[in-house]
Amino acid sequence: SRSGGKGGQNVNKVSSKVELILNIDEAIFFNDDEKTLLKLKLDKRLDSEGLLHIVSQEDRSQLLNKEKTIVKLIELIKKSLQVKKTRKQTKTPKSVIENRLKNKNVNSFKKESRKKPSID
User: In percent, how much of the chain has pLDDT > 90?
Assistant: First the structure.
């Protein structure tokens, strides 16, 4: 199909748009775990038949558009197969706790000194 963008009258004559369609279920280069992970991560980008569509129509050259779709596919797969590391919780340093308590005491003393002295 035709791609939009630059090209003047040439746009109407040349079909340089490229659409790459990948069936994740039939892809032999993924194992079952990777396939399920891809389906989970890319569920918004899959159509009703489970096909992944990637389109490029930025350039006038069909070859450049093909290369861009392949790069997009590789980046998308890399990103979706990457497992996020769980955050390792750290302890609050003692110095931070001490500073907080010291500031609390200072504020407490300030407020206490503002009160009128009670006569007992």
Answer: 41
Tally of structural domains, the chain:
1
pLDDT value at position 110?
94
Tell me how many degrees the CA angle 40-43-49 measures, rounded to the nearest 5: 115
The verdict on residue 111 lying in a domain is no
pLDDT tens, position by position, 63-83: 999 999 999 999 999 998 888
Instruction: Tell me the helix, strand and coil percentages in the chain, rounded to 5.
Output: 45, 10, 40
| Residue 16, in any domain of the structure | yes
Cα end-to-end distance, the chain, whole Å? 94
Q: Range of 25's domain? A: 8-81
Q: Round to whole Å and give the CA distance between 54 and 19.
A: 6
Reported as type and span, the H/E element at residue 106 is helix 94-114
Is residue 2's pLDDT more than 90?
Answer: no
